Amino acid sequence: MDDKKDYEKVAADNEETCSFCGKKRSEVKAIFRNENARICDQCISKMKQDAAKE
For the residues of 1-54, what is the DSSP string, one character each? Predict the structure, then answer.
């Protein structure tokens, strides 16, 4: 089985979680994903705040 099909199977079998904070899809407004990682809207907001401080 190739990586993409493996990833789709995991996503279909389990509720998606953020690769950074581990929150479930039901705990956040949105999760953005690609073949390698998922990130929730809350982590994106935190990263933007942290970047603005630097």
Answer: --HHHHHHHHHHHS--B-TTT--BGGGSS-EEE-SS-EEEHHHHHHHHHHHHH-
Q: Which two tokens stand for residue 3?
A: 């990586």
Q: Which domain holds residue 27?
A: 3-53
Six-digit token string for 23 = 């929150």
Specify the number of domains making up the chain: 1
Say what the pTM is: 0.70
Residue environment code for 24-43, b if the CB has 16+ CB neighbours within 10 A, otherwise e: ebeebeebeeeeeebbbebb
pLDDT band at 1; cut points 50, 70, 90: very low
